[in-house]
Every structure is written in structure tokens, then in C-alpha cells.
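HUMAN: Spend a minute on the protein record below and explain its fold to me.
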Amino acid sequence: MLKRTRSIRWLIRQVDRFDNLQVRNLFPHRRWVAYVALVLTILILVALPTFMQLHSPIPIAQRLLGDTSVAAFPDAPKPVPQVTEKAQTPDPLPPQQPHDESKRAEPAQVAIYHTHNREAYQPDAGADQADRDNVLDVGFALAKALRQQGISTIHDTSNHLRPMAYAQAYRYSQVTAKTLLAQNKGLKLLIDLHRDGAPRSSTTVQVGGQQVAGVLLVIGAKNPGEADNLAVAEQLQRICDERFPGLCRGIRTASWATYNQEITPDALLIEIGGQQNTLYEAKRAAQMFAEVIATYLHQTGPGATL
């Protein structure tokens, strides 16, 4: 604050000097122009620190209390140093221990995680990015429905979003994906669960007279092993069309991405609904798709014939 006050005083002195310059004939309204520039500069000096605070990883409640120490709010996300492409240094994000909401007595067959864990359903959350009514809730619903089908499932809720580093989310989520694979040797399906950004007219479907969120399977075509991941997606689509006609919106391929699917042929990116769907519509779709996944695993298990 002291530095800002000194800067403002310096600017006022410059305005007075400007008024005495020998360019008055060129700028007949010189003092008015100078004071407008002064006001704009003051606004920038005042607003910039506030803007930076809004993008701080310290929660708003913590900043209001005046305590910005990590110890006061241990659940606050920790800032991660940025590493440029040229720097050949280890990844600054240490492996995160997957969080599972239940105790498992056996390795998981299905693992669910979220690269973009704040993707929300606007009618319930009030925004398309939020800490509630988002894809984490749909992940819980999918995991619960799978367990009810007798499928051992882990739902990882690690945060992969960092301030000013949204584009790096897949890099961070790859750590989680590899950890899930390492800790669950019998993993049959690794799901990165999202919601789409398309309008409601594209993401809403009718299934058995019910209006629910559509399920879209996404494959990263930049992955050298794309064909294997695509084969899994095609089997899931076939089963879905048989059991719940209309639920699956199809398979989308992205030529510019891998979506971390290069780490295993059993990795998929699944989008349930879009930001304009309700959370209920997305959860209902997840419950239906859990039956599809269970059928797929039974059909592809030991001794099964497709």
C-alpha cells in the first residue's frame, strides 16, 4: 500500500510538470488529458492486486479472515510451479494418492477420475464451472451404480486444475491415471469423466420415455494405440444401443489429442450431458451407463465370448 501511495504522488507531480511544458499549443486540453491518464493509472494500480488475489489458490473465506497461511486451511489447493517445454526437470506435481469414498477389499475393475473436475451443470450449480453440482457428483453416482452391479470401482476425486494453468490439466491428471493403473493391476476400464460443452439440444436424449443426458464416448486419435481404445468404445456403444436405445450419442475422435489414452488400451474419455443439463439428468444417465459397463465387463471377462 505504501508503494502504491508513493506511485500516486509521483504521478501527481508528473501532471504538474506536464502543465508547465512548452507544448501547450499542441495540447490545449493538456491538463484534462493528464488527469484522465492519472485516474486510469490509479485504477490499474488498485485493481491489479485485487485481480491477482481473485486468482490466488487461497480460498476466498481464508482471505477475508486475513490469514493466507496454508496451515490455516489445509484443504486449499497448493500452487504448482510451471515448467516450460525446454526445461528438462521432473514433473513438479507429485503423484497424488487416489481418494476412494469406500474401503475396497480387492483391486478395482473400474477406475473413474476427472481431468476437469469443476465442470458443472448450470441449472443446479448456477455456473458452468463450480465446486458443487458438477462431474464429481456424476462420478459418485456412476461408481455407486457400478458397485451395485457387483463391479469393484474406485472413484478418484483429485483436483487437476491449477490457477492460470487450465491447459495443463491433462498433464496433471496423467499422474493420477498412472497411479490408478499401478495400484490396480486388474483394472479393466479407466474412465476420465467429463461433461460436454455443447448446447442442451445436442446433449439431451429420450430413453424409454425419460429425458436424460446423453453419453458421448471420446477417443484421442493422436494416440498411437487409438485402434485399441476405439474398439473398446465401439463395444460399449453396441451394448448401450441394445440396452438403452438413444442413450449413447456416438463416438467422437479428436485428431489433436491423446487424452492420456496412450497409457492403456482400456482408457476412455466419457462425457455425460452438457452444462445445460440438470444434475438429475446426468446422474440418471450415469446409472443407465453403469449397466452398460457391467455388461461389457461380463462379456469380456475370463471365458466370455463376444
User: Anything to note?
Assistant: The CA atoms of residues 105 and 152 lie 9 Å apart. Residues 110-300 form a domain with the Aminopeptidase fold (CATH 3.40.630.40). The two ends are 70 Å apart (CA to CA).
